[in-house]
């Protein structure tokens, strides 16, 4: 964690650590790992909501927990772009969104649906 900003360190220390090393083929150990994953995601989501920083939804797409679906969003220029994601990597996705989305919107590569409607009406 050396070199990370204090907010990132604080966030990480509040998310429960995963202790079970298991994959989907490991039976009961995988079930335990999946429970740990859910606990971490729930803690992170609750922490974000309490800090008015709610920016993603994620859920298992199958009972085995091997497929995940979700959405994430980012507010730029008071517009709210939404994106579908296969698996939210909470700490990796947020900094990427903050760095890349403004550039993509400002360059015109991503357009808000309201902007597209307004340009079609003119």
From TrEMBL:
The membrane spanning regions, by residue number, are none
Q: Name one GO molecular function term.
A: UFM1 conjugating enzyme activity
Assigned keywords, A-Z: Ubl conjugation pathway
* InterPro entries reported for this sequence: UBQ-conjugating_enzyme/RWD, Ufc1
- Gene3D superfamilies recorded for this chain? Ubiquitin Conjugating Enzyme
Q: What do the Gene Ontology cellular component annotations say?
A: cytoplasm
One GO term under biological process is: protein K69-linked ufmylation
Q: Which family does the entry's similarity section mention?
A: Belongs to the ubiquitin-conjugating enzyme family. UFC1 subfamily.
Q: What is this protein called?
A: Ubiquitin-fold modifier-conjugating enzyme 1
Look up and give the organism this protein is from.
Gossypium laxum
